[in-house]
Amino acid sequence: NAGVTQTPKFRVLKTGQSMTLLCAQDMNHEYMYWYRQDPGMGLRLIHYSVGEGTTAKGEVPDGYNVSRLKKQNFLLGLESAAPSQTSVYFCASSSRQGGGYTFGSGTRLTVV
Amino acid sequence: LAKTTQPISMDSYEGQEVNITCSHNNIATNDYITWYQQFPSQGPRFIIQGYKTKVTNEVASLFIPADRKSSTLSLPRVSLSDTAVYYCLVGDRGTGGFKTIFGAGTRLFVKA
User: Fold this and answer.
1) Cβ contact A104–B103 (<8 Å)
2) Is the pLDDT of residue A27 over 60?
3) From the DSSP assignment, how many helices (H) and strands (E) are in chain B?
């Protein structure tokens, strides 16, 4: 039982480049989320999804786009990376029935 | 959206019981209280969730008074490996609130 899997684990981008972070969950969870965490700070919600084909903005959505074409996958895209997007990105999922979030192990992104 | 307040940091020694209190004065009737643990370079991990009175599992207890305006996470006989950041969240049982703000959490340092 893998839970939530994030790929890649590490990435270095040049300013202006684009990339997609992939999140996959095998728990049949309805809800999925993308968070970013900067050094010494808590997690901030970027975007979330309440079901296949739906997405919504969180606290810090600017500069990011998401898609959820399949229930088990939630993609986070950076169209034109900026140094301010250097962070650790966490994906999470949860069930409508409770039990809290299950997080992935994170993607450490550096934009130079 | 219920806001939570926690101490920034706490120190303890191995073998002691640690109690971390979280204030959530604006908790709504349908809100649950959920606690997470985060180690460096890892995603947060669900510890315990409750609605009222007391909940206990294999790793912690959660005490919630009748007015539900606060909650206390109790870690029995902590060890060095319990050094981590602990987050208190309030919101829907399944999601913790779609715009949940994790905040900075409580940094627990366990000393030998």
Assistant:
1) no
2) yes
3) 0, 9
